[in-house]
Amino acid sequence: MIILTSSSTWNENEQILHSLKDDILVTNVDGIILKVSEVTGKIYGVDSESLIGKSVYDLERQGLFTPILTPMVVKENKKITFVQTTNKGKKLLVTGIPVYNEKGELYRIVSYSHDITELAEYKDFLITMEEEMERVKSELDLLRSKQLMDAGIIANSEDMKKVISTALQLSEVDVNALILGESGVGKSLLAKFIHNKSHRNKGPFIEVNCGAIPDSLFEAELFGYESGAFTGAHQKGKVGLIELSNGGTLFLDEIGELPLHHQVKVLKVIQEKQFYRVGGTKPIKVDFRLISATNKDLNTAIQEKRFREDLYFRLNVVPVTIPPLRKRTEDIVPLIHLLLQQFEEKYNREKKLDEAVVHHLLHYEWKGNVRELINIMERLVVLSPSTLISVEQLPDHLKKGPTLSPPSVDSDKTLKELLEETEKQILLKARKKYITTIRIANALGTSQPSIVRKLKKYKIY
Ligand SMILES: Nc1ncnc2c1ncn2[C@@H]1O[C@H](COP(=O)(O)OP(=O)(O)OP(=O)(O)O)[C@@H](O)[C@H]1O
């Protein structure tokens, strides 16, 4: 608090006031200007002396500055800071300090300011940029979701959005990519998506299921053969899958199933981008982009000497992991709608899902991931006798809901993580049984807000 002890002190300060390089203005409680520093006049483009004796209310009316500080300090009876705009369009950060006389009465208001025009401009610029970025981001989201819709891919969850964003980056370069994830999560779909978005999209997309080709036919299938290369071979010979992928993408699915004795041949063609047909003597050059996929843990396979480490490093330049469906429940409802629509069209039927069915589908474990969901949805559309698909039509294993079993202590998880896992299982079961958060809270003897928080934490919908 500032208290003036005598008016002479006030006069003594006058010289100091003029020596300051800051804008300082002193008024009485009625807003009459008593003193100003020289800088003040410059800021408003007037002679400082001409301001003396004028009322700040009049000056505001004349447009010199707005709003005025004096009444605010008088009203609040304390130090106040705010932004003032001047007749020159400047932005000033103005602070007003109340000054009291010996009786403790409000006597003067001293204000000083800092020019923050540039700062305010930067702030405006930042806000405009942020708005622009938001606009571009939502446009991009829209564009991406359209791209995904065209490709028939659902990516509603944050995890899946990240996968798609990596896939789009990958589509721009010819780097080797390894797609990891459980069976049925969409590895082949993603490989096709990368190919379709790449500059090779006019070329072929050749999918080789490494686990499905009989061992004895593997070389002939992959590398092709010359006429009469072996008994049973076609007269004219045959072009292999690798040769067919020229100019396009070679997708080696189930790469973890590739027998060890074939791995070195595959490694060679990946490295050299040339090979010999079976029975051939001429090297054949080939230009493909390689994507591989597996649901196996290749690191364990390497440790167990079932998979070559050098091949693994070649394949795994950029890994992309698609999380299991149970870990991205936000994708389940949009997938259900997409599939319902597809099967309605396919079987020319109109169906609706009971809400309880959706709940069961949301809280199922989906060990077979999207592929399993597709099967269930097709079955429901085909077999449900009425328009409304109800819980009774669900297969028994889906009606039961998740079973509660304590998590294994052999894992490297901490006690906190194990407890959270158990809590999540309990909540999944409760959500399925009681549906509403109030009923869950009652059943579990806790508050509804706490249940809402926990459901959000575990992404249980
Ligand atoms: N995000 C998704 N949106 C829409 N459909 C999907 C999605 N993910 C997977 N699918 C569909 O699920 C089915 C299984 O997908 P896909 O064959 O790509 O799985 P995968 O991981 O390659 O399986 P596997 O390991 O058994 O080869 C396909 O019909 C695919 O179109």
The CATH homologous superfamily of the largest domain is named: P-loop containing nucleotide triphosphate hydrolases
Structural class: alpha/beta
Measured distance between first and last alpha carbons: 57 Å
Provide mean pLDDT, rounded.
87
- Ligand catalogue: adenosine-5'-triphosphate
In short:
The protein is of the alpha/beta class and 461 residues long. The protein is built from 20 helices and 18 strands. Strands 1, 2, 3, 4, 5, 6 and 7 form a 7-stranded mixed sheet that branches. A 5-stranded parallel sheet has the order 9-12-15-8-16.
Describe this structure in words.
The protein is an alpha/beta fold and 461 residues long. The protein has four domains: 2-115, Beta-Lactamase (2-Layer Sandwich); 152-323, P-loop containing nucleotide triphosphate hydrolases (Rossmann fold); 326-400, Helicase, Ruva Protein, domain 3 (Orthogonal Bundle), CATH 1.10.8.60; 415-457. It is 47% helix and 17% strand. It has 20 helices and 18 strands. Strands 1, 2, 3, 4, 5, 6 and 7 form a seven-stranded mixed β-sheet that branches. A five-stranded parallel β-sheet has the order 9-12-15-8-16. Strands 10-11 form a two-stranded antiparallel ribbon. Helix 7 crosses helix 8 (187-197) and helix 14 crosses helix 16 (369-383). The longest helix is centred in the first third of the chain and has 35 residues, at 117-151. Bound molecules: adenosine-5'-triphosphate. Adenosine-5'-triphosphate (ATP) is lined by residues 152-155, 181, 183-189, 253, 295, 335, 370-371, 374. Residues 119-146 form a coiled coil.
